[in-house]
């Protein structure tokens, strides 16, 4: 294609973006002269160029649009939705003609007479029919001299041409790859030179190091695009949605200059659009409903972006109805996405995140605006695919906010290099929360508890499930019987899919900037690895995929993803039909089993810390007051033996509160099929099961905790003595 | 000349194997290989070939032959395996051999299934038997990745064939 036409197409598509935005802005602010002038300039530039290049249809169309704009500018017409509508249709038509020119080098077969006629109808000037191509010189339309508004334009354009150039995106990608290679080469030279004490070498290397870093930063900057590039399309989306849904909407943006790598921008374009549509369709209420709630009729959606600690945060906030957590719960139960037992333990936040599950939609009627509501899980997976995360918060009646956190770039990432069984692996730092060193500690106080087969670590009171890297990778040279405590010196606390776990590794080496390279087809199926990189000594290291590791370790079987999968399985206990149980000893050597999913953590506290308030036993634990329940109070058996001064407490979390159940001893964690359990009594909520060859009482924490003091769960601090009621 | 089909040949556990020259990008001496846990046994791992990450296939394992002794450093035959670069670990590189296309015979029945699956045929050279590998098959993941040893019967046959010539 003629390079001049190519240039024209590029320039015109930019002008069209400008036109669209100015039109939508003009509709909101009909008195804004700046918008009209800018519109006029943009459409005039298109008209001028196509007259020169010989595109008569395009010229006719843009001329008609220009005439209408002239009326607006001269005040002969005032801005109405109808006018804006027609002008937007002109933009669409121009866009289509440009697309035709691009593909066929012709203007297409559509004549656009109807559109031009409707423009002319609005235009009150007395130039009937199609405006001729000589109009600019001799037309009687009382528009301004075209040169007048264009006066400042050539100057600013010239400045822009000097300051910036267009660069092919492929070239930028190639540059980024080359910089990646350079970073690798630099790391290799550093390692080679580490042994040398040569001063000249060191200074040369430092120079190389500095230059490489600057070049890397420069190329990365060149690839950065403002988030506004994605947002630019949004005012139009909002306007169209508002018209289609009969809602009044205002879109505000903050931080549109925040920059992201173009690969990430591309990746989040669709998710953002989807979230915006969701906010408008599901969030913002119709005007009358809003006014009934005392809110302004116009709904507001705020898009904001900012840089924070090496990440870009993007927020989409609406001031709509918020998300009804109970409604979500009902739907999730109805669709079998969660079991009633799981639902009881879920916090408000957990409930909200149910909408991220595949196949979830709270809208009873499928609306044409935001699709079929199957999108939220896709949104989440797209965001997570680029190493980002998503969080939803809502306040009923006040609105909903979706926060995204995204990395700045994908190609070169900081990583922690670790070693397992002689090979090094890279762990992306975006997943890393903290590192706990356990090498110096004695075996018995390492803090790793092997309860049954499940290694757990008490990290500030929370039970952190552990995954042994070498075991996961099947490279442990140990016999299978070796206790889990015996290997590993550090626990790396990682987060993936809102799931925290500890990765036990033998050795942590260093942090390094690594260049991510994809794995070949043969290895792509292994979900523990996200790719490979080349380290300073030119050897290849695999990049661990934290989410994949967690999945492989089946850590997720108890979270919502797992819950969703389990729906398909017969029985409430998942694929194996076995329930993990915490086996404890209660009064008098009697055993009891508590489903592990009802246990949020285990505490071991001195007996003297128990205080009595209002006739209830409470204990101070990690900054909160936790009510205690005992078996003696529940089933009337003898009081728990005061054999030692330490209490073992099973902590149960229910609706935002912790309640502790005092047990004699924690025995084991085991897996057990709960079929064939016998009800011990009719109403006590307990059943008997044979666990590890002994009869154990199967305990439902909810019903047990409920027995001694139902009000505990409601509000333990305000629990009053009986006498005061 | 143009009628000749040319093979890059190499030894794998004493067997002379060959692949079409066209499929070969280069031949390199020993490279450090990073093992990939959880991968099929015949994938030796990954290596760095001039900043490109190359998947390495252990041909001995792929063909169900015995393990390479620790003191025998493998050579690499780097091939174009679809979109990825793939290197085949071989014991020793031999010369390039040209044969008539019609000299290619189907793999003998007595070879184990694993070998036959990865071969497109055999060529009887003057003094030896050349096993021509089917590159596409070699670099393809198969559903059954358990390594079957080359059975003794097949090995005896190959020796007998070689002795005959």
Protein topology:
The complex is a heterodimer of chains A (725) and B (165).
Chain A: H1 3-28, H2 33-53, H3 56-74, H4 81-104, H5 113-122, H6 135-138, H7 147-150, H8 152-163, H9 169-193, H10 199-223, E1 224-226, H11 228-231, H12 234-245, E2 248-254, E3 259-261, H13 262-283, H14 287-292, E4 298-308, E5 311-318, H15 325-334, H16 340-345, H17 348-353, H18 375-385, E6 389-395, E7 399-407, E8 412-420, E9 423-428, E10 432-437, E11 448-451, E12 454-459, E13 462-468, H19 469-472, E14 490-496, E15 499-505, E16 507-515, E17 529-534, E18 540-544, H20 546-552, H21 560-566, E19 578-585, E20 591-595, E21 601-606, E22 610-613, E23 616-621, E24 624-630, H22 631-635, E25 646-654, E26 657-663, E27 665-673, E28 678-679, E29 687-691, E30 694-698, H23 701-706, H24 710-714
Parallel strand pairs in A: 2-4, 9-18, 13-15, 20-30, 24-26
Antiparallel strand pairs in A: 1-3, 4-5, 5-7, 6-7, 8-9, 8-16, 10-14, 11-12, 12-13, 14-15, 17-18, 19-20, 19-27, 21-25, 22-23, 23-24, 25-26, 28-29, 29-30
Helix pairs in contact in A: 1-2, 1-4, 2-3, 3-4, 3-5, 4-5, 9-10, 12-13, 13-18
Chain B: E1 5-12, E2 15-20, E3 24-28, E4 43-49, E5 52-58, H1 59-62, E6 75-81, E7 84-90, E8 92-99, E9 104-105, H2 113-117, E10 119-124, E11 129-133, H3 135-138, H4 152-164
Parallel strand pairs in B: 2-11, 5-7
Antiparallel strand pairs in B: 1-2, 1-8, 3-6, 4-5, 6-7, 9-10, 10-11
Structure description:
By secondary structure, chain A is of the alpha+beta class. In chain A, 39% of the residues lie in helices and 27% in strands. Chain A is built from 24 helices and 30 strands. The N and C termini of chain A lie far apart (89 Å). Chain B is of the alpha+beta class. In chain B, 16% of the residues lie in helices and 41% in strands. Chain B has helices at 59-62, 113-117, 135-138, 152-164; strands spanning 5-12, 15-20, 24-28, 43-49, 52-58, 75-81, 84-90, 92-99, 104-105, 119-124, 129-133. The A-B interface holds A 181, 184-185, 423, 473-475, 517, 519-523, 525-526, 528-529, 532, 534, 538-542 and B 32, 34-40, 43, 45-48, 51, 53-55, 57, 81-86, 139, 141.
């Amino acid at each position: 294609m003629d390079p001049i036409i190519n240039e024209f197409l590029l320039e015109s598509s930019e002008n069209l973006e400008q036109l669209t935005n100015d039109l939508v802005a003009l509709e909101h602010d009909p008195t804004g002269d700046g918008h009209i002038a800018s519109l006029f300039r943009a459409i005039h530039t298109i008209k001028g160029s196509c007259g020169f290049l010989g595109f008569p249809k395009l010229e006719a169309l843009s001329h008609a649009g220009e005439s209408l704009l002239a009326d607006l500018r001269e005040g002969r017409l005032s801005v109405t939705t109808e006018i804006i509508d027609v002008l937007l249709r002109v933009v669409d038509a121009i866009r289509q003609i440009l697309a035709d020119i691009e593909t066929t080098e012709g203007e297409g077969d559509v004549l656009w007479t109807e559109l031009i006629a409707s423009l002319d109808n609005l235009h009150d000037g007395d130039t009937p029919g199609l405006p001729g191509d000589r109009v600019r010189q001799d037309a009687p339309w009382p528009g301004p001299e075209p040169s007048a508004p264009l006066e400042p334009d050539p100057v600013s354009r010239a400045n822009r041409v000097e300051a910036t150039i267009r660069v092919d995106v492929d070239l930028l990608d190639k540059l980024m790859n080359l910089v990646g290679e350079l970073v690798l080469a630099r790391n290799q030279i550093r390692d080679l030179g580490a042994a040398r004490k040569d001063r000249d070498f060191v200074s040369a290397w430092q120079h190389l190091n500095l230059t490489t870093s600057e070049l890397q930063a420069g190329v990365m900057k060149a690839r950065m695009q403002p988030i506004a590039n994605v947002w630019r399309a949004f005012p139009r989306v909002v306007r169209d949605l508002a018209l289609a849904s009969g809602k009044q909407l205002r879109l505000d943006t903050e931080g549109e200059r925040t920059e992201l790598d173009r690969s990430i921008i591309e990746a989040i374009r669709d998710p953002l659009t989807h979230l915006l549509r969701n906010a408008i369709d599901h969030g913002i209420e119709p005007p009358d409903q809003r006014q009934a709630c005392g809110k302004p009729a116009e709904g507001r959606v705020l898009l904001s972006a900012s840089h924070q600690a090496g990440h870009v945060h993007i927020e989409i906030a609406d001031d709509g109805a918020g998300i009804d957590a109970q409604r979500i719960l009902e739907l999730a139960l109805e669709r079998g996405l969660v079991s009633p037992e799981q639902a009881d333990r879920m916090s408000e936040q957990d409930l909200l995140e149910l909408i991220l599950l595949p196949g979830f939609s709270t809208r009873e009627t499928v609306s044409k605006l935001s699709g079929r509501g199957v999108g939220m899980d896709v949104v989440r997976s797209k965001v997570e695919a680029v190493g980002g995360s998503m969080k939803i918060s809502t306040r009923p009646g006040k609105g909903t906010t979706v926060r995204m956190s995204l990395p700045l770039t994908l190609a070169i990432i900081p990583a922690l290099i670790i070693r397992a069984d002689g090979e090094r692996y890279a762990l992306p730092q975006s997943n890393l929360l903290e590192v706990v060193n356990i090498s110096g500690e004695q075996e018995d106080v390492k803090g790793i508890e092997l309860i049954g087969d499940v290694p757990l670590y008490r990290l500030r009171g929370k039970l952190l499930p552990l995954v042994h890297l070498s075991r996961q990778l099947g490279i442990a040279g140990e016999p299978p019987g070796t206790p889990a405590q015996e290997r590993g010196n550090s626990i790396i606390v990682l987060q993936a899919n809102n799931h925290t776990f500890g990765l036990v590794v033998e050795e942590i080496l260093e942090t390094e900037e690594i260049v991510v390279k994809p794995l070949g087809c043969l290895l792509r199926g292994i979900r523990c690895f996200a790719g490979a990189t080349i380290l300073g000594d030119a050897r290849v290291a695999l990049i661990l995929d934290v989410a994949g590791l967690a999945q492989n370790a089946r850590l997720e079987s108890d979270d919502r993803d797992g819950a969703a999968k389990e729906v398909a399985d017969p029985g409430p206990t998942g694929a194996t039909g076995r329930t993990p149980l915490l086996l404890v000893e209660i009064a008098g050597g009697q055993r009891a089993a508590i489903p592990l999913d009802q246990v949020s953590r285990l505490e071991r506290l001195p007996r003297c810390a128990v205080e009595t308030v209002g006739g209830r036993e409470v204990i101070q634990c990690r900054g909160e007051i936790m009510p205690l329940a005992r078996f003696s109070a529940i089933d009337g058996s003898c009081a728990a033996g005061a054999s030692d001064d330490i209490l073992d407490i099973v902590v149960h979390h229910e609706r935002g509160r912790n309640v502790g159940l005092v047990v004699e001893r924690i025995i084991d964690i085991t897996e057990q099929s709960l079929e064939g359990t016998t009800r011990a009594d009719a109403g006590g909520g307990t059943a008997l099961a044979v666990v590890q060859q002994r009869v154990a009482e199967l305990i439902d924490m909810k019903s047990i905790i409920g027995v001694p003091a139902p009000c505990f769960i409601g509000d333990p601090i305000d629990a009053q003595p009986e006498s005061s009621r | 000349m143009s009628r000749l089909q040319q093979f890059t040949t190499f030894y794998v556990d004493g067997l002379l194997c060959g692949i079409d020259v066209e499929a070969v990008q280069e031949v390199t001496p020993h490279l450090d290989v990073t093992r990939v846990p959880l991968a099929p046994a015949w994938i030796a791992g990954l290596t760095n070939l001039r900043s490109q990450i190359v998947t390495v296939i252990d041909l001995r394992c792929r063909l169900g032959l015995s393990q390479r002794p620790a003191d025998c450093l493998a050579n690499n035959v780097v091939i174009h395996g679809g979109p990825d670069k793939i290197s085949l670990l071989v014991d020793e590189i031999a010369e390039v051999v040209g044969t008539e296309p019609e000299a290619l015979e189907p793999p003998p029945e007595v070879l184990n299934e694993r070998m036959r699956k990865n071969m497109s045929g055999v060529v009887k050279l003057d003094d030896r038997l050349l096993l021509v590998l089917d590159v596409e098959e070699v670099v393809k993941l198969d559903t059954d990745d358990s390594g079957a040893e080359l059975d003794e019967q097949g090995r005896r046959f190959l020796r007998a064939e070689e002795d005959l010539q």
